[in-house]
Specification:
Layout: H1 2-30, E1 34-38, E2 49-52, E3 57-60, E4 66-67, E5 77-82, E6 89-93, E7 103-106, E8 114-123, E9 146-152, E10 162-170, H2 175-179, E11 194-197, E12 200-204, E13 209-216, E14 226-232, E15 248-257
Parallel strand pairs: 1-7
Antiparallel strand pairs: 1-4, 2-3, 2-5, 5-6, 8-15, 9-14, 10-13, 10-15, 11-12, 11-14
The protein binds calcium ion.
């Protein structure tokens, strides 16, 4: 008899209960835990290092890949993930991430990957408007208007190409960044940061964002195994009296041969 009542209750109750339950699950998942997992097999990753460099905050993931952000996100800031054997990963967090879980899949490195930089680099002159893209979260001192690094690669095979990925970059005040609402500077704008490889300009970075990928033209790699990569920040195009370099921050430079 008890069984029958239960079943009847379930049948009568389900439609309305269903709604309530769904609502509760949604609410729970909004405050759900942040997690780092292996992008290939979906396994949680323990011991990954999570950093918010601008906030001087760092933590590691638990055995289930979970982690807590012990700090409040009010303005866009870069979160980076590091784990031995995996490609460094980063993402730009905004205030919206405060109330939704941060779930990041990371990929194993291959012998073909060359990790150039995992530190946060600040280019510019430490003089910037508070309206600049993400300026409120700049915390590092500038290393000057450009960054440069040299490394060696094996000669590329015919079918192989070399790609540079910039994990995350913030602070760019170009007209394109302004149009996207990334910068609130109204009275001026800057030229884009430029990327040089072995002295050749190969790209301009016009907008802020994560995982911007650049194909290095093979023609400039012939006959050399040394790669010099230089990133120059832009300059304020409205300032005529003195040079004002655009203050930007970036992290995670990765070269991949594919
Ligand atoms: Ca500046």
């Amino acid at each position: 008899m008890k069984k029958i009542i239960t079943i009847i209750l379930l049948i009568i109750g389900l439609p309305s209960f269903g709604k309530v339950i769904t609502g509760e699950i949604k609410k729970e998942s909004r405050t759900d835990i942040n997690k780092i997992y292996d992008a290939e097999n979906n396994n949680p990753i323990e011991g990954a290092i999570i950093k918010l460099p601008a906030k001087n905050y760092s933590t590691t993931t638990n055995s289930d890949g979970s982690f807590k952000l012990g700090t409040k996100i009010t303005a866009p800031t870069i979160l980076s993930v590091e784990k031995d054997g995996y490609k460094p990963q980063s993402m730009t967090l905004s205030a919206e991430h405060q109330n939704s879980p941060i779930v990041v899949g990371i990929e194993k490195t291959t012998p073909q990957d060359i990790i150039i930089e995992t530190d946060m680099i600040h280019l510019g002159d430490d003089s910037f408007s508070q309206n600049s893209a993400h300026a409120s979260d700049f915390s590092l001192k500038s290393m000057g208007p450009f960054y440069s690094k040299e490394f060696k690669i094996k000669p590329l095979k015919e079918h192989e190409n070399l790609y540079l990925t910039i994990g995350s970059i913030i602070g760019i005040d170009t007209p394109q960044a302004q149009r996207l609402g990334q910068s609130r500077v109204k009275t001026s704008y800057s030229s884009p940061p430029e990327i040089f490889c072995n002295g050749n300009k190969i790209a301009e970075i016009k907008i802020n964002g994560d995982n911007q990928k650049i194909n290095i033209p093979k023609s400039i790699l012939y006959g050399t195994e040394f790669i010099n990569i230089t990133i120059k920040t832009g300059r304020n195009l409205y300032k005529r009296s003195a040079i004002d370099f655009d203050d930007i921050e970036f992290t995670n430079l990765l070269f991949e041969i594919k």
